[in-house]
């Protein structure tokens, strides 16, 4: 068994144990399926379109399955150098239709990313600035994500083979009518390159939200299908 896969599996099991121990401490569970389409226009310019929905799977100390939100988003990506990209994005999230006490959100994002390869491993840094426009205020958020990915068979990813992604992300939020908020995320993903331009991912993410106030524990099960042209 590849060493990278073993480490990822151990981290996954540790995360599951940590979540179980927190089951009675403000825990919510979610399932988030997503489909995205990537279109390369050439000369370092590409588009990304994504459609996702989020369901509650654990809430109020009980299992459930109900819709929380639906969202659609778009990113325009510009390659600055061989390993550096700048992107701008816009996203709309429908929340009020499913939870009348909540409001919909329009999100604008500016993103810079840089990657470096170390033999079979690839290390990526991603920086994001977000403006989350929703009633009754606009929230500003800063995000930094550190990610490591590697193929699980051989030194290069080929069609039909799996790969591992591990990442952690730190978030800081501020707004006129809210206290500053801090959040930490940890995610483990297993993916497969099903065909050229077709990838499937499934993963588990743990979020520790509102660290300075009443910490909220959230676990996300995610599935993503990515199509590239």
Q: Would you write up a description of this structure?
A:
This protein has 229 residues and is mainly beta. The protein has one helix and eleven strands, in the order αβββββββββββ. The protein has one domain: Porin (Beta Barrel), CATH 2.40.160. The chain has one helix at 3-21; strands spanning 27-42, 45-59, 62-81, 84-94, 105-118, 121-134, 137-151, 162-175, 178-195, 198-209, 216-228. The longest helix has 19 residues, at 3-21. The chain is globular and about 45 Å long. The model has no long low-confidence stretch (mean pLDDT 90).
Describe this protein with a few key phrases.
229 residues, mainly beta, Porin, eleven-stranded mixed barrel
Q: Give the low-confidence spans.
A: none
**Biggest sheet, in brief?**
11 strands, mixed, barrel
Q: How many separate domains make up the residues?
A: 1
Could you say which structural class the secondary elements and strand pairing correspond to? Answer: mainly beta
Question: Which helices and strands appear, and what pairs or packs with what?
Answer:
Elements: H1 3-21, E1 27-42, E2 45-59, E3 62-81, E4 84-94, E5 105-118, E6 121-134, E7 137-151, E8 162-175, E9 178-195, E10 198-209, E11 216-228
Parallel strand pairs: 1-11
Antiparallel strand pairs: 1-2, 2-3, 3-4, 4-5, 5-6, 6-7, 7-8, 8-9, 9-10, 10-11
């Amino acid at each position: 068994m590849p060493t990278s896969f073993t480490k990822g599996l151990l981290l996954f099991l540790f995360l599951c144990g940590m979540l179980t121990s927190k089951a009675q401490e403000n825990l919510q569970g979610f399932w988030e399926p997503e489909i995205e389409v990537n279109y390369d226009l050439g000369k370092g310019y590409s588009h990304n379109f994504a459609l996702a929905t989020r369901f509650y799977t654990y809430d109020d100390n009980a299992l459930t399955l109900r819709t929380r939100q639906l969202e659609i988003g778009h990113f325009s990506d510009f390659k600055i150098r061989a390993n550096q990209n700048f992107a701008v994005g816009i996203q709309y999230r429908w929340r009020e239709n499913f939870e009348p006490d909540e409001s919909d959100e329009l999100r604008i994002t500016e993103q810079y990313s840089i990657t470096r390869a170390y033999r079979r491993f690839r290390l990526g840094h991603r920086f994001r600035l977000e403006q989350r426009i929703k009633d009754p205020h606009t929230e500003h958020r800063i995000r930094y994500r550190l990610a490591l990915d590697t193929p699980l068979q051989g030194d290069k990813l080929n069609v039909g083979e799996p790969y591992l992604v591990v990442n952690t992300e730190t978030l800081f939020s501020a707004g006129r009518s809210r206290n500053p908020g801090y959040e930490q995320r940890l995610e483990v993903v297993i993916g497969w390159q099903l065909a050229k331009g077709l990838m499937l991912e499934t993963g588990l993410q743990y979020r520790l939200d509102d660290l300075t106030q009443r910490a909220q524990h959230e676990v996300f099960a995610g599935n993503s299908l990515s199509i590239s042209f």
